[in-house]
């Protein structure tokens, strides 16, 4: 009897992580938008930045994270982590949390525990975590 083993990862397997990323982004983007006293049309800005987050989630969780799950060497995960940190410079666009959650998800691909992760995977988890926490910090700082 033969068995067929597939290394394919369905994009639907990453749907929960994508929803978490967008779910974390939405209130933080709202906080940053309505906390910005110089914003003349906060509703428009919020809808645009939320749309950017959703559009960003499509390639991140539809292509990059599944790619990292198929080949958990950590390269794709590190790229996502670096992009997440760099996106803090333009945090108001709505990219950061999506990239950060993508980096952490891709970093843990194929491993169930921290000790089982490769060095690259650990780097991506740390970069994604730092970027995510940085996004929370700058969003809250918009209130002051």
Features of the shown structure:
single chain, 144 residues, mainly alpha, 5 helices, 67% helix, elongated
How many strand units?
Answer: 0
| Helix/strand class | mainly alpha
Span from first to last CA?
A: 67 Å
How would the global form be characterised? elongated
In terms of DSSP E residues, the strand content is under 5%
> Whole-number average pLDDT?
87
Q: How large is the radius of gyration? A: 16 Å
Percent of residues in helices comes to: 55-70%
- Low-pLDDT regions: none
- The number of helical segments is 5
Sheet of most strands: none
- Count of domain modules: 1
Q: Order of helices and strands, N to C?
A: HHHHH
What does this molecule look like?
Helix 1 (15-35) runs antiparallel to helix 2 (42-70), helix 1 runs parallel beside helix 5 and helix 3 runs antiparallel to helix 4. This protein has one domain (14-141). The longest helix is centred in the middle third of the chain and has 29 residues, at 42-70. The N and C termini lie far apart (67 Å). The relative contact order is 0.17. It is elongated and about 45 Å long. It has helices at 15-35, 42-70, 75-86, 96-107, 119-141. Helices cover 67% and strands 0% of the residues. By secondary structure, the chain is mainly α. It is built from 5 helices and no strands.
Summarize the structure.
This protein is mainly alpha-helical.
Task: List strands and helices in order, with pairings.
Blueprint (H helix, E strand, L loop, with lengths): L14 H21 L6 H29 L4 H12 L9 H12 L11 H23 L3
Helix pairs in contact: 1-2, 1-4, 1-5, 2-3, 2-4, 3-4, 3-5, 4-5
């Amino acid at each position: 009897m033969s068995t067929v083993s597939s290394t394919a990862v369905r994009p639907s397997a990453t749907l929960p992580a994508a929803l978490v990323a967008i779910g974390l982004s939405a209130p933080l983007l709202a906080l940053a938008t309505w906390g910005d006293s110089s914003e003349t049309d906060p509703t428009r800005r919020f809808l645009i930045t939320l749309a950017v987050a959703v559009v960003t989630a499509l390639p991140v969780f539809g292509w990059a994270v599944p790619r990292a799950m198929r080949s958990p060497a950590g390269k794709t995960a590190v790229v996502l982590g670096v992009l997440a940190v760099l996106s803090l410079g333009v945090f108001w666009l709505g990219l950061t949390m999506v990239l950060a959650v993508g980096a952490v998800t891709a970093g843990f691909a194929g491993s169930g525990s921290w000790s089982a992760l490769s060095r690259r995977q650990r780097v991506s988890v740390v970069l994604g975590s730092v970027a995510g926490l940085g996004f929370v910090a700058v969003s809250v700082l918009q209130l002051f």
